[in-house]
Amino acid sequence: MSLAFGLCLLVLFPMAAIGAPIAFAMIVSATVYLAVSGQDLALASEQLIQSVYDSFVLLAVPLFIVAANIMNVGAISDRLLEFCKAMVGRFRGGMAQVDILVSLIFSGMSGSAVADAAGVGKISIAMMLKTGHYTPGFAGAVVAASATIGPIIPPSIPMVLYALVSDASIGYLFLGGVVPGLLMTAVLMAMTTIIAHRRDIPAEDAVPLRQLPRVTLQALPALLMPVTLLAGIYGGATTPTEAAAYALAVAAILYRSVSLRSLYGVFLDSARSSASVGLVIGSALIFNYIVAAEQVPAALSGLLDRWDMSPVTFLIFANLLFLVLGCVLDATTIILVIIPLLLPTVRALGIDPVHFGVVAVVNCMIGLITPPYGMLLFVINGTTGIPIRDIVREGVPFLIALLIALVCLTAFPGLVLGLPRLLGYEG
To answer: Largest CB tally within 10 Å, which of 139, 200, 329, 352?
Structure first.
């Protein structure tokens, strides 16, 4: 390790430890590296511009963010809640089950866990608390846990970022997330049922069967969106960016309930979110140049080779690493900075990149509900006022359920790769 790289890390970690935004920490540390190593400081800008402009797929990220925000202020959330209440509200823990099912469907439109928790999740919490059968901590925990499904079911912003650093097919990554997302939904609903029986939480009033066709028809465009997106991307009719534009069009045109004032707020919030994500992406691309220049991936790959790791052992190691890092880093940073270090070893061991990518993204989503950094915990606390400690305490059973799903996805690659292979994937 060179002196310049050592000073770079010496700046990076203390800044991150004191709470500086990770993007700023990486930019400052990268500047220190370039200055000490005697390289032109303009190299950072050059790397950023070349990397971003060569990756047109990144345009899908702000489009999905805008689509998700429009869905939160429009009629889509209300129609999805009505549909899900008709489907599962009649079961034990009905309103909690409704939130999980809504998250599954909403994830097929937004690709964002934060959008799910801050939008439709906030509505779900209010509905659960209104019944008087749920504690605030439990309601917050259900919403936080179910929001992790968002970036697993296609479309998925984190999978777009993984495709950026790994060159894996976005279409097959999206297909690979379908079964894992359904599995996560199943284990969360099963855990909710167990808790509801233990606490004697009653079911909601059943929606008459004669109303099902009406509520289904109203929610149909939203229900078909993930299918349409996958068919368009996999069939070659659309790029991921064009698919994101389609999601935006459905949200804005088909459900025409967004006023000009609320639309202004949507674009303002979306611009802030996109700028925040873009800043992290840009700083990570600069930092990745430094990591590559220092040959860190090759050194790490050589170290793991000397340990003579099998694919299974490596996947266990990677899972533990991601789970630990998820407690202190956000998902975007892990995907853009940490995962590129492991990809040479992934390829050397013959691990399928789509399987590894989906497992990595699931790990990152679990990290969103683990303290102290868990982003979803802060989002729910900020939007509802529910204490974080209550959400964490009530969320332990759901965390266990998600870890069980993660173990299954790691141990049985067919759960991830079955659908892509059925549709032509040869990995």
So the answer is: 139
Q: How far apart are CA 364 and CA 338, in angstroms?
A: 11
Cβ atoms of 311 and 349 within 8 Å: the answer is yes
Give dist(CA 373, CA 370) in Å, integer: 7
Burial level of 226, CB count in 10 A (0-12/13-18/19+)?
buried
Cβ atoms < 10 Å from Cβ of 293:
15
* 217 CB neighbour count, 10 Å cutoff: 12
Q: Which residue has the tokens 């099902």?
A: 212
Q: pLDDT tens-digit profile of 195-246?
A: 988 888 877 766 676 777 777 777 776 666 666 666 666 566 666 566 666 6
d(CA 144, CA 362): 14
| Of the candidates 298, 294, 421, 279, the residue with the CA atom closest to the CA atom of residue 354 | 421
Structure tokens at 68: 């998700």
Distance CA 280, CA 159 (A): 16
Predicted model pTM: 0.79
Contact indicator for 23, 282 with CB cutoff of 8 Å:
yes
